[in-house]
User: Which sequence fits this backbone?
């Protein structure tokens, strides 16, 4: 699902940034160069032109990831709206059509002179705004796996996702199965 009609995967970038900075990815413990490389890889993986990013992109992306996390941490739609509105209030919005780098015309939400960090900030804020305005808090949140601090955004048709990954979903299912087996006395380990 493309929530904002942009050429990047802004919603995926929001999730990846939060998870890269959060405790679930080990992002806090990584060496500076490795963390900066991983943050740049998030840009590339989600369709942003990382080569246009300044060398010191990592602190700005880390700060924005912490702001994005506020949307994933709430469980009430009113709280999500407040968190999204705070993000939107902090971005510069000047929509225009662009055909940079040989691409067909597409919508940018930032002015032509905006750098890649500003474009990412604006498009991720808009992606979360669209997600919350269309689905409330039913399609995003913190991973339901015990001990996992990562986040997810559900873009599936059935809207059943509650885990950041298949690994967390499987681990939780196995733990639940074992707990049921212990409770019934069947002795499954």
Assistant:
């Amino acid at each position: 699902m493309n929530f904002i009609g942009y050429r990047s995967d802004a919603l995926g970038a929001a999730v990846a940034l939060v998870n890269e900075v959060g405790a679930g990815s080990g992002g806090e413990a990584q060496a500076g160069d490795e963390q900066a490389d991983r943050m740049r890889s998030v840009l590339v993986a989600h369709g942003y032109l990382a080569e246009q990013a300044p060398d010191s992109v990592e602190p700005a992306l880390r700060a924005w990831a912490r702001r994005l996390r506020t949307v994933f941490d709430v469980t009430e739609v009113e709280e999500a709206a407040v968190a999204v509105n705070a993000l939107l209030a902090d971005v510069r919005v000047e929509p225009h059509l662009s055909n940079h780098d040989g691409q067909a015309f597409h919508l940018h939400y930032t002015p032509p002179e905006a750098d890649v960090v500003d474009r990412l900030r604006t498009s991720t804020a808009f992606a979360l705004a669209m997600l919350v305005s269309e689905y409330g808090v039913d399609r995003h949140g913190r991973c339901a796996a015990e001990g996992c601090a990562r986040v997810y955004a559900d873009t599936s048709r059935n809207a059943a996702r509650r885990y950041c990954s298949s690994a967390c979903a499987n681990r939780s299912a196995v733990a639940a199965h074992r707990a049921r087996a212990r409770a019934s006395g069947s002795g499954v380990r």
